[in-house]
Amino acid sequence: MQDQEIQKLKAELSSPKKIVIVPHKSPDGDAVGSITALYGYLKKGNHQVSMISPNDFPSFLSWLTYSEDILNYEQTRDESDKLIATADFIFILDHNAFHRAGDMEKPLSAANATFVMIDHHQQPDDFATYMYSDTSMSSTCEMMYHFLDKMKALDTIDPAMATSLYTGILTDTGSFKYRSTTSTTLRVAADLVDKGAESEAINRKIYDVNTPSRMKLLGVALNNLTVLPELRTAFITLTQEELDDNNFQKGDTEGFVNYALSLNDIVFAQIFIEKKDESIIKTSLRSKGDFDVNQMAREHWNGGGHKNAAGGRSELNMEETKAKLILILRDYEKALQGTQI
Q1: How far apart are CA 231 and CA 177, in angstroms?
Q2: What is the pTM of this model?
C-alpha cells in the first residue's frame, strides 16, 4: 500500500463510518487476532464496527478481548447481510478472495462498500480499493502492526490489541519457528510485549488446551499415521466416526499435521479430516525447505495458502482421497527427494 493510498484511506476514516470486518472461514489465531485488533483500533475512531465470521472460531481463542462481539454468519444471516449491504467500508483480513469466506461470498460480491484487504497469502483477487498484500510477512497480525504504523497509529495499541496481534503472530509462525519468522517479526513481537502482551499467559492460553478427548483423538490420529520414506512424505487420516467417537470440538485437530512433519527426513506432511455434513474431506498441507505446498493445494486440492502451509479439500471418499494423494506424489518425487532441510 503506497503512502498516498494510506493518506487517502486515513482521510476517509477521519470521520465515523459503518465498517464490517471479515476473516476467512474457520478462522484461526491470525484471523481472530487481526480482526479483534483492528476492531479495537476502529472503535477508538468512533466508527460503527461489526466483525462477521463465516462460521464459528475455536474456543481456545474466546478469551481474546472483543471476541465476544464476533457475529457468526451461520447464526446471524439476516443481520449480517444487512450490515454488509449498508457498510461504507469492508475490511477483508487474512484472506484474499471472497470464496474463502464461504457462504458470505454472495453478499460480499454484491456489496457497494469500499474494500480494504490486508493479507499475506499468494495470488490475491482484484476486488479491493485499498490492498496491502505481502507474501513475505509471517502473518496478517504482523501486517496489521505495520498498517497501524503506516497510519501513524502505533500509539493506539493498548494491551488488548497488543495481545490480539501477538496471538496471531505466535500461532502463524508456529511459536516463531517457521522460516517466515524474520528479525522484523521478532522486533514487532517485542514491541507488542512492551505494549502489554503477556507472552507466557498467551502461550498458556493457546497451547495448554488439551482435554482427555482431544488427547485420545491425537492418539487415534497418530495410530493412523502413514509414512512413505521413499517419498519423504507422511500423512494422517481421521474419519467422521473417529471424530464423533472422541467428542470432537472445533479446533481439536489444530497442529496434528505437524506431528507428521516432525519426523526425521520428512519433507511433506498432509492430514485428511472427514466432514460428512459438508460431504468433503478437509485437508491441511505442510512442508519443509523449498517444497511448495501452496502450488500443490491449488492444483490438486481446491485450495491454497503459503509455500510451506496450505489447505484444501477433497470431494472423494477417504480411500479414494488417499489413492489420489499417492498418485499425485509420483509427480513430485524428484522435488521431494531433492529438497534440502
Answers
A1: 24
A2: 0.87
